[in-house]
Structures are given as C-alpha cells and as structure tokens.
Amino acid sequence: MSTIVSRSIREPFRQGLTWSETWEGEDRGLIRSWERGREMREQQPDLAECASRGELPILPWRGGLEGPLQIKYKYGALQYLAMWQGLRGEDLNVAMDTETEVVCSATGVAVRFTGDISKFG
Question: What is the Cα–Cα distance from 22 to 99, expressed in whole angstroms?
Fold first, then answer.
C-alpha cells in the first residue's frame, strides 16, 4: 500500500517550520513544494495557465519539458508533481511509493514522477 501525501487547497500555509521539519520530514518536502506552487500561481499567472492546460513547464524540480524529446518518457521528481499541483490550484495528492505518469499536453511526452532518484540517470 502506497503512502499518500495529501492536503486541501483550502488549508493555510504552514508557518514556523525549521529546514529539517520542512525537507526531512515524512513528506520529504512535498507539502512545501506544493505550497511554493500555490505561491507561484499568484506570482506568475501565465505559468499557472500553462500548467492548468496540462503543460509541464520548467520548474525548480526535475520533471518539466522545454520541447519535444526523442524519447517517449522521462523521469521527474515527486516534488515537481507536488509543485505542479499547487501551480494548477489543485489539492496536493501524491503517492510516495508509486510512479505517477503525466503526459505533457504541449509536447506529448510522458513524465513518470518517482521518488526513486536512481532512475534519473
């Protein structure tokens, strides 16, 4: 059974956490990545619109696409997926122990989001 990290878009941003609590806790920074995506939604509405259309834009985490690739899929970080969900204005819903595949609407390339960084090559 996979561990799911979830949080409602109606939840307030967390305050006063240490770096260790934010990035080394059970969620491995997924909640903070999602919160940052929510902030970016307000700060960069054009980027948020791209994400809302199903595009996978370049973000600080591995997983975005600049254009079509010669491969059918690539791997991306779960933190990207969490940030992307926040950027889209969605609830956080990330399975930590399974891969989630999203096909970029702009490029047609699939990105498999995983917590297994050995797959990033």
Answer: 23
